[in-house]
Amino acid sequence: MAASLSRVCYISLHIPYGQAWAQDLAAAFRFQPFAVRETPRVRQLALRQGAAVFIVNERLAPRHAGGSHGDFLYDVDPRPALGTASNICFEVDDVPGLCEQLQRRGCSLRVPPTEVGDDGGSVTYGVASSIVGNVSHTLLDRSRYRGPFLPGFQAIPGAPPDAGDQVEITHFDHITCVCSRGTVLLPTLLLTRFQHLKGGQS
């Protein structure tokens, strides 16, 4: 039986050094920061509204040649950082099994199945390349984790509650990707095509 994708966990943005997009998400769309991971080189800030979560990845200093490729946990470092969505994370029930299936279909793994844990439990994740330019896909099993977000992230004390205005975002309904002519994304990610036509036909 094929391993299944259960839902989108988060979408991550890699922003060019020196730009501040987290404030825009918070101000314009009322996303609230709730967890952060910070090292001397990078900051990963998680923001949410409803079940919709963005991770904003930013460098705290310019990246130098020969720098670490593993600075960003649960992700890879796109070069150059184009200031767009660069990773779509799917929750799955069997990360090693799905990674193996993807490799058999010709997909390259940027990060092999890896376990990360803390006092809240552990998660398993891998990162696969996609045919969509600079976009990668994190495959994540967090069924064994009971912490606030993901191991390595710290909850932000006193994070403000939802603003409570009329702007309400509950979840990601769909994601649109632009592929090169002739490429097919569906078999690579074990997805199936569907369409809804006028009159209820599908």
How would you concisely characterize the structure shown here?
The chain has helices at residues 22-29, 95-104, 186-189, and strands at 5-14, 32-38, 42-49, 52-59, 85-92, 109-118, 121-129, 136-141, 154-155.
Describe the 3D structure.
- The protein has 202 residues and is mainly β.
- The chain has one domain: 2,3-Dihydroxybiphenyl 1,2-Dioxygenase, domain 1.
- It has helices at 22-29, 95-104, 186-189; strands at 5-14, 32-38, 42-49, 52-59, 85-92, 109-118, 121-129, 136-141, 154-155.
- It has a nine-stranded mixed beta sheet.
Reported CATH architecture: Roll
Number of strands: 9
Order of neighbouring strands in the sheet with most strands: 6-7-8-5-1-4-3-2-9
What share of residues is helical? Answer: 10-25%
Instruction: Determine the strand fraction and express it as a percent band.
Output: 25-35%
CATH class: Alpha Beta
- Output the CATH homologous superfamily: 2,3-Dihydroxybiphenyl 1,2-Dioxygenase, domain 1
Instruction: Please name the CATH topology.
Output: 2,3-Dihydroxybiphenyl 1,2-Dioxygenase, domain 1
Quickly give the structural class.
mainly beta
Quick one: overall form? globular
What count of helical segments does DSSP give?
3
Which value, in Å, is the CA radius of gyration?
17 Å
Please give a handful of descriptors for the protein shown:
single chain; about 200 residues; mainly beta; 2,3-Dihydroxybiphenyl 1,2-Dioxygenase, domain 1; 9-stranded mixed β-sheet; 3 helices; 9 strands; about 10% helix; iron; metal ion binding; metal-binding; 4-hydroxyphenylpyruvate dioxygenase activity
